[in-house]
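Supplementary Methods S3. Complex input for the pyridoxal-5'-phosphate-bound model.
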Amino acid sequence: MGAPLDRSATWPYEQGEPGRFSYARADHPTGVACEEALGALDGGHALLYPSGMGAVTTVVLTLLRPGGTVALAEGAYYGHRVLLDHLGGWGVNVVEFDQTAAPPDDVDLILVEAPANPLLTMPDLEAAAGHPAPVVCDATVASPLRLRPLEHGCEIALHSATKVLAGHDDVVAGVTVTRDEELRDRLHLTRRLAGIVASADTAWLVRRGLETLEVRLARQEETARTLVERLTSHRSVEVVRYPGISFLVSFDVADGDAAGRVERGVRVIENATSLGGTRSKLEARHRWEGDRIPAGLLRLSVGLEDPEQLWADLEQALTQA
Ligand code: PLP
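Predicted complex, serialized as structure tokens:
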């Protein structure tokens, strides 16, 4: 099925010279086959990484200089903030901004998220693209089937392919996609020199996931809409966030204790982290993110199970809220 899995780390030279593939830290055929499929989805040149964070790290090392500032969307994936703070020692500064409006003036790189995980705001991509700094849009949750950031003026579309692209919670991977070939080459150079390289197994699993992406996403989205409707009228649920696309929902119960009881109460839905996989997952995010989000916030990643079974599970868990 699909491209063969080639785990080679090296390939023989052709008439004494390196051919298209010579050493897997630069490129390997299974990775390139996966990148071609990913590039077609987002409309650009894709590069694969061993994680979403590997992709972000490569982007920051390539585009930012010491003393530079990243404008990060408020409420975006908390790992981005933690990474950028960690890179403070290398001269990376970070400011957060409301991504539904224009980014601040004096910044060198803009990182928005569509939609932001877990507050689920959507960025104003037009306002971001009007800024002179390059714009990176993490579209992990939207997926290229619901948003193609390069068509909205972003320089880089970025995904944690660990989530819905691979879709089965059995691989960690990341992707960047650019229209500009020179930018792709600069990212590739950083990736190769730093060794931020996805294995052939990773590439094979991501590519296999893409074959069912469309049907998985359609089903997950339809179920998400049903659950959102019912959560909205549930008496223990104070706020429901859903951007109208994709599989991710967040909702608030009264407080952190109530959220803890609900997450421990689910039986069909897994009480686990991550999102985008075939099995639904629920998690109170306060344990990770602290006061940047409401204490009673629960993040629900809707999977492929029967929607009525999922609702029955949520309903019984919510009786403990
Ligand atoms: N971007 C978003 C929106 C995420 O949710 C995550 C992980 O949860 C990441 C990036 C990081 O991806 P990875 O865990 O593949 O490194």
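The chain has two domains: 29-210, 213-318. The CA atoms of residues 2 and 208 lie 8 Å apart.
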